[in-house]
Fold each of these.
Amino acid sequence: MSQSDTHVVILGAGHAGGTAAALLRQYGHEGPITLVGEEPIPPYQRPPLSKAWLKGEADADSLALKPLEFYAEHNIDFRPNTRAVKLAREAKQVTLSTGDVVTYDFLIIATGARAIKLPVEGAHLDGLLELRTAADAEILKATIGPGKRLAVIGGGYIGLEAAASGRALGAEVVVIEREPRLLARVACEPLSTFFLDYHRRHEVTFELGATVAGFEGENGHVTGVKLADGRVIACDAALIGVGAAPNDEIAKEAGLDTARGIVVDLEARTADRSVFAIGDVAHRPMPIYERMFRMESVPNALEQAKQAASAIVGRAPPPGEVPWQWSDQYDLKLQIAGYAFDVDRILLRGDPASAKFAVFHLKGDRVQSVEAINSPPEFMMGKLLIANRKPVDLDKLADPSISMKEVAA
Amino acid sequence: MAKITYVEHDGTEHAIDVKTGLTVMEGAVKNNIPGIDADCGGACACATCHVYVDGDWLPKTGAKSAMEDSMLDFAENVEPNSRLSCQIKVSDELDGLVVRMPESQH
């Protein structure tokens, strides 16, 4: 158990940082906790920003991980509108944007990732939006509606979820994607095709294989997206969702290893025993795939918050996890378990035309990952098979009339 | 407001006043009660907010959706009184509800 005067400072009050603070208290840490966040509000869930928030079904209160009073009641010094500007590891001190200097016994860096900006002409115009924070979502919500035309730059999950919400609010939506297919970096071809068809049925239009050359505007406000082939796609607003980069500068300047994010071990600890990094900013080991990578997902943020909090209080580490994520678009629930590393075959179970199917990614006869559309059994059992590495009978797996329980038995 | 008693697997009880309109899961999470992880925040995507509903309360918690039913079918240690607490909306009618937590949410 950590000492009652052990001070834990958490930089970043997102899902990872907020969870780490709450878990430290839940696990019995008695010392002071300081939680430093750039945004004006306490930690909240980000996934609904592209869905329920845009549709007016969620607000800051309902999305808050804990109510504001929780932090004072649990002796957590929550400092909103504040960020760290300098880390001095030898002195174990962090300088904040307010000028305050705080001394830590343990530091948890949970500064997340930021949206990548497009370095093109017109990128300064009003009406060019991103979607990382509640403030971003509020601007987007105020912008889209009946009669408005939203251009979504980037056919990834955030872009597609925003497209679905935009349609639900009556806006016209066009998605512009550089690659020839949607979700090119994160999903397989059958899933890309399925989502393309599904969105088209909801009257979203697409420009695939299209490079954005710049933005056109009038009176400082965007009026269109200029493509490399010279065409201009008219719009009232453009949401840019082309990926994110880790906010790892403070660690880098302090001499920590930041290959592609802050490098940590299985306890979420950096090479400095007093410094942890968790969530989107961390480059972490994933034993089931025998490699390290950086993940941008809520389950990863929660998992690493558990790892760091456990290590700090001297509690047994959480059991090894299978990474997973989800996406909701229209009436579709996509659940993904694992990552498709070292895959030599793809197996389809079910019929995409029924909007209920799963794609299994296999290495020999072992499941590496599964993408399940409206198919909880395939997701749940797929996750189990990824964890236990059991070989599967591929004929049975391909036959939806055989239950997943039997396949996984 | 409805008083809901959350019982951890080791028997520790937490009696909490939960605002009407929240879910039973949100009542636990917002009060930092251990044993309900709710990784997905209520999207019915993860089955880490599994609870057992005590005694006669089960019918009052409403019907399970096909999605919840399907997720529960593959969760661990499922009993006939199992529910995903993110799918139970708190109403005045649930004042006095008791839910128990499974040994683990994985």
Amino acid sequence: MDILSLLPPWLLTHGVALLVVLPLLAGAAMAVIPRERIAWTITFMVMLICMLCALTLALQVIDQGRLSYKMGGWEPPYGIEYVVDALSAPVLLLISAMAVICLFYASPSVKAEVEPKKRAAFYGAFLICAAGLLGMVVTGDAFNVFVFLEVSSISTYVLVAMGHSRDRRALRAAYDYLILGSIGATFFVIGIGFLYMETGTLNMADMSNILDGLDGGSRVAQVGFAFIVIGLGLKLAMFPLHMWLPGAYAHAPSFVTIFLASTATKAALYLLLRFAFTIFDLSFDYVVTILSQFVLVLAVVGMVFASIQAIFQTDVRRVLAFSSIAQVGYILLGLSFLTLSGLTASYVHLINHAFIKGGLFLAVGAMWYRFGITRVADFRGLSKTMPWTMSAFTISGLSLIGVPLTAGFVSKLQLATAAWERGYGWAVGVILFSSILALVYIGRILRVAYFETPPQINGVEVLKNEAPLIMLIPMWILAILSIVIGINAGWVVDAAGRAAELLIPTQMIGRGL
Amino acid sequence: MIELLLNLNPGLIIILAGMICAVLPASQIRKLLVIAAPIAGIVSISTLYTDQEVIGGIIEVGRQSFTTLRIDSLSLIWGYIFCVVGVLNGIFGLHEKCQITDSSALIYMGSAIGGVFAGDLLTLFLFWEIAAVSSVPLIWKGGERAYAAGVRYLAIHIFSGVALLAGAIIYGRANGGDFTFGHIGLNAPGGWLILLAMGIKCGFPLLHNWMQDAYPKASITGTVILSAFTTKLAIYALARGFAGEDILIYIGAAMTVFPVFFAVIENDMRRVLSYSLNNQLGYMVCGIGVGTSLAMNGVAGQVAVHIIFKSLLFMSMGAVLYRVGTIKGSELGGLFRSMPLTTVFCLVGAASIAAFPLFAAFVTKAMIISAVIKEHHYVISFILLFASAGVMEHSGIKIPYFTFFSHDSGRRVEEAPWNMLVAMGLASALCLFFAFPFGGYQFLYSLMPYAADYDPYTADHVIFQLQLLFAAIVAFALLKRLRIYPAERRAEIIDFDWTYRKLGLSVVKWLGAMWMRLNAVSANMRDRFAGSLGRKLQQVFSPAGTFSAGSPVNLPYVLTAAMLFICLIGVYIGAS
């Protein structure tokens, strides 16, 4: 890699730590910054640096493989170790890049939706949330994961509640999220506790080695695994544990919804992959049972039920929120095949869905910004009043349905192929059926936007009122990205393939089938 | 991959442009695409074609291979003329800033071209259905009145597609999995089904109603676009699959005659044109039935010129509708004062369709009729001649007379927009060019599928044709003078579609009433069941439903606990 040799050496060695420490410190500093403008600038600069770090790390991982960083110079397994490998590098890049893209959009959107006095604090909370998400992906220490999980969750509750100045229901949504999120975190920490009790270590790699030595017989580790799966299941909105998600997505400020929808559940999904496949692994029969049966059933039921529920929603943000739950179902379905192709499909959809759903929520946020609308019925004639925004929404929407030449098609095709290879012909049918349901809930919105005339106010048709350029740029970046991936998905699939190989090492292939 | 891209069906380029238009909000770029895409199509066809049959773009899906590209002397002229009329339509629609029209026009045009260049029946079926689905928005854009017509249109065309697919599968199975689209014939297994599919699309008598139902109700640009492609794709398919089937001669003859009567009494000018379109298709079907090289040349030539002059006529009526707001013969008249250029263009179109010497149809229609006579179908040839006089009557005289002359309606409107005038001007120029005795018709003949040694400008042909046309004019004048000619009344004529729009509807209504009356109990039960099912779904899934409820119901917590429990049991079972 020639690019790597051009970068300063301190970035190469300490980039891993910077990724987490920088937003964390900046977030704390935000508490004393009075001006919104300055707060935004600092936030943007910090996230830009984080994205550069993540990019550097991704390049380094491609070049050198697994990277390890010892926090404070303490040797693992005693000290905290930060690890970047083919599994975490793309997620890091995804989180930091989505943060940068969303921040473009933030300045008008936050002005419109958050009280003036709280705006600097809002950016602070956002930085801490981002630090937490990055931290839980980058750390190689199981307890540290819990800490960062809570860091990100608590700041997220605050961010969601900040939506109360535009919608009072945000408070209630944040409260629901707080309770359920805390239950999830508690379950997770109980699971970690059991593991610590059994292995005596918190370092993931070390834990994995010791667990292997236990020969699968440890009841304590088994109970720990169940708690971790349910705890993370709550965080990643696995089907019946998704109750907090629609409210949080629908009532939070637009900017928060966009960021959460494209990153928060993805980070939790990453953790599930990390714990289920690398700390535990497929040599344990109970892991195989849970993943290939329990998770499979929930994934399939979630894909269908959440999609049906999306059809019945009146609020576009809730439609998209339920669609997110269904998409989590797709990702879990791929995971539950326990094959390389299944995990690849799962990982591809994890990345694609972040772009797709981010793009959709960006467009919906812009519509709220201009017309204050979120209901499906209010989309009347938006193709005329906000043509560019509506077009971006349409591209991302088609991608969500899985129309050929879009990112959604790539991941659904991968998933269907993986299901076929696994011998699950019926799963292909479920994927198709769920896609048809997606066609219904997205098509319903598109029909209103394209085939009905703009509403009239005092007998005058509403005039064209396009979103500001700074809002259009991010949503078009994501829409075009969706098409680019649809046309050439090689790089995403390659990255996902590398992650999948890490999750199922050669000696594990075929186990649990 | 590269080989596949080089041999790309030109229709796909245009479909791709249409898909881009669907999501492109900038209307200037869209308009550029609408005109550039068909031009790219022409360029692509001319680079691909090399004087002999070109086959390419073979895609293997599973065990089935699709031949997506076949250009030979028969499909060539269709491809070119579709692209040319696509450009004209694009210019005609420049004033309309509508994303849906632009994209569905391109996708529809692209699928028609794709269908013409399809090398096997399955590919043809795909394009056949895309054409049906993508054209419906053009009808729906015609306003509320058009919605039901659009649904009927869609239902009929989807049925046609299904018949085609069923026929193709039977045909392909019988041929050992070979779906190549060549001559099929009625004796082949599945042949009748395929003929039915094509018959629906090109408006065989009693299968024709969708045309007069939907076309007049579509939007202004929509009708112009629709009139060009669907039926001509079907004519191409017939020419490819059923050339020389005798039954087509009789069907074609019937097709030329029956619309004449309806066209004469119809008031909606765009509907008159739809009937006249049906009548023109009759000549082509008849020519295909004869199937000799002269007849096939005539068919190909007639398709080419027909698309141009029929578009021209629809465009002129569209321009009138755009300016005046109505297209009812009873409310128009005297427009030549305010729309002189449109009048001239309409007259050129009328003269072309009536086959005046020096105007387009003169050089092609005669080929079909001569071919019919050469094969000794004298009765048929008389029918065709009678229908020619009928064409003169309703399209050549009635349309321009009632719209632009006749009694003055007192309407004073602006001349049509510049883009419409340009499109009509170009179409008129083509009409004149294709019949131009020195180099014009020779060029048209050079594109025909077989070598053509036919001279339309012989003295007896010219004189005969003029006699026929003047006789028709005299008849019109006489009838008008004696006040026998049916006056323009405000009414919608329902012909065979009476069976489903009136009879069918009343049967359904009667059944419904009986059902309600005689079976109140079962209706109640059914309502109760459907209602409760709907309510249940609402109760569970709606924003106020069980699944959406927050903490008061405690459902999330119960579920979490239940999941943990199940998961623990799972772990236990899995481990032991």
Amino acid sequence: MDLTLLLQSALAGLTNGFVYALIGLGLSVIFRGTRIINAMQGEFALIGGMASYVLLESLGVALPVAALGGAVLGGITGVLVEAVLVRPMRRRGASEESYLLLTLGVAFAISAAVLYFFGRDARLLPGIGGEASALFFDAAIRVHAIWLIVIASAVMALLWLFYHRTVVGLSMMAASVDEQGATTVGINVPLMRTLTFLLGGLVGGLAGVLVSPLITIHYEMGLLLTLKGFAAAILGGLANPFGAVVGGVTLGLVESGAVLYFASGYKDVVSMVILIVIMIVMPNGMLGRGARKGG
Amino acid sequence: MRILRRRFLVGAAGLAAAALSIAAFAQGKEPIKIGAVLSLTGPGAGLGQGERTGILLAEKAINSKGGVRGRPVKVIIEDDGSKPDNAKSKAENLIFNEKVKAIVGGSLTASTGAIAAITNGQGVPQLALTGLGPPIELTYKSVFHLLPPQALNAKAMLEYATKGLKAKKVGVLHDSGYGQLVMNALKAQSDAYGMEYVAIEKFEVGATDVSTQAAKVRAANPDVVFVIATNPIPFRNARQMRITQPIVSAIGSSSYQYVSGMGEFANDIVFPEFLVPEYPMPHQAEFVNLHRITYNVLPKNYEAAGWDAIHVIAKALETTGADASGEVIAQALRTPHRGVLASYNFGATDMTGIELSSYVYSKLVGGKFVRLPFITR
């Protein structure tokens, strides 16, 4: 096997893996805090990416400010979804399945709204380092992709600190694990759920800002990202944000490895078979045990 | 000079009044209904939305000229959501409730097949915007298609690669949907063109990264690379993986939507297609101008196909009258028609009659389409 191809495959796998991981992280944050499987996590990315694009191209703000604006709008969307849709459903005793249906419906609505207001055109955010690539033994990786990996790793580390070292993070976990117990000790459970959606939306919006220079922003990107992010989160252990990163990177590497060793038409078949085997051996996900330990 | 100007103004006012009165006369009569089932949402929206604008523009243009035999044309457009089961129910509604004289669509092959099962049974003429393939269509009595079969698209690509670029070895990056259809046609014709496929790499529709596949194509060292996808990412990845060879694509990838997503990599990519609106052929200029004035954007191939579909049907109805049977209208549709997209002959064995010579070749230069002098005969 050509060493360059092998390296190229690994770099592509890592890049894709961290893209999946960023979406999986947000999914996992919301599931960890509310037990809701959020089918609109990719839509947070769509909103974040599109908002950054509008801020940058139409309003002429600087790229870092536009990126921040995209992430914040993702967070605001999360809060709105929780306050306007999830909370009233919870009051009426909605089941877990109905939240899945709700978020799926909102995902389609957001996608349709983006199609209506922004059209079908694919839009491109400039990446960190522009279109420049770095070479490793003749294998290429976008400079932006390196930054995406670094930032995603930093987000993962910050989330770990947040959940383990801050009162708010621990309160969010407590509110999720034992609602009545948390209320008894004075935790504002509804506020914690809102903050969970804020955090999930922020991570999703940031994912959109980081992913858009690689895959372009278009109205259908949300659902595609959600599917891969969901696979990453399940593979790593849905309740564990760090599992989403492990799952995402594993998924990315398995996919690119499958392209390398098999005819590329069989990529999905090969990678899915490997993932099924992993799930049979580790049914709670690769870091599922850690999730239970954390609550 | 002043008298001349006055005469000109009086004449122009008279003509305008006549045109308005014709249009008003047409508006006062019962409209002739034509149905359209398009993919306006879902994966096929990239095709259907463009087809819709072309159809609406054609409706407006025909009615402004007095309609068909003095009656206005009314196009009822339905969205199938890119799903064949929806396409079937929408077509049934158009035929049985709206009593349309003909149906345009679908935008996707599966929808076209679902609609054809109804139109064929009811004898309603159908102008499809994608083909089912001649072996199937020949068994139907009234299904024709406006866009070329994939065999012809493949030929157009191979013509340019072998005659324009003198290439012998080709590497291919294609998606599992549209790209697979074109790839099948390319394989079928490789011997006729003496072309060797040194690498064929496939990826799923909507893939977010195909750089490993692109690296494998590059490693095979082809003379030219075919990239066939309904997504700008493979084009970007090909250049990012330092594929420096010329890229030839297919008509389905030639859209402003994809070019904007290619960013700075929208360069040195050739498309065999029919309409390069920046450099329109004389018979395309009126449509291009009207589209630009009406929508403030330039049209591409699918807009032109929508425009042609309504004009082809209107021309047939002009010949037969709106009260003619579906069979008679279908027979009239078989008359050769010079459209904006191409010259059609729906009586031909491939049910479209588009010749290779109808293709023009465009090349992306700095993100802009430029028409190439290369022609096929």
